[in-house]
Amino acid sequence: MIKRAVVTLGLVGALGCAMSAPAQAAASQATKATAATAQAQEAGQVWQFQGTITNFKDDYLVLATADGEVRFNLTRGADYCGKMMMGVGAVVDAYVENGEWVAQKIVTT
Question: Which range is the signal sequence, renumbered to this chain (predicted)?
Fold first, then answer.
């Protein structure tokens, strides 16, 4: 519960961080990691993806990045801020679990 409160309070700050140069470099590296390479990522490591939502259901989200589409599992209770709909820009923080990307935080722009 405390984690969700801290994340909720930090969403505005996270959006500001996403606009900074160092975060852009990290996001650029993350977009190169596709769903096919999710198995090769280290457990517990969080990646940041930037792109446009192309598909959205209760249990998954598909984000079109500069390097292709990435599918995220939403069944683990991802926190989100903004309108969750197709065609909207988004920043997604995710980690790998059982060979798939699991969204941890989603901020739409």
Answer: 1-25
In total, the chain counts a number of residues equal to 109
Number of domains in the chain: 1
Phi–psi pair at 33, nearest 5 degrees: -85, 110
Alpha helices in 1-109 (DSSP H): 2-18, 21-31
Handedness of CA 12, 71, 76, 26 (dihedral sign): negative
CATH code for the domain in which residue 88 is found: 2.40.50.140
pLDDT in tens, 17-60: 343 333 433 444 444 445 445 655 666 799 999 999 999 999 99
